[in-house]
């Protein structure tokens, strides 16, 4: 089971988890209460519920680089590369994406960065 911490405009927004059955995303309760809260995607509206999917949610999958950019990841990744491991790719490649959303593998480390 892998867990990623999702940030929106540098604020902790929610948790994405890979389970044996697929993927689960839920917003952080404090983020939902914030007056500046925005959904990370129109397909994941701001609701106090758990979203479930058999495959990585298309929004998150779309953040992962493709083509020659993915080849750069392959050359620089220290571990065995597997294009089917979308969650690991997301956590490695999407720490500093273009746009408002970033994905972090370590919440404590991310909280230090996003103070």
TrEMBL record:
Keyword Cell membrane included in the entry's annotation: no
HipA N-terminal subdomain domain spans which residues?
5-103
Q: Name one GO molecular function term.
A: protein serine/threonine kinase activity
Keywords in alphabetical order: Kinase, Transferase
Q: Which InterPro entries does the record match to this protein? A: HipA_N1, HipA_Ser/Thr_kinase
Q: Which NCBIfam families match?
A: couple_hipA (TIGR03071)
Q: What is this protein called?
A: Serine/threonine-protein kinase toxin HipA
- State the organism named in the record: Methanolapillus millepedarum
Name of the gene this protein is made from: hipA
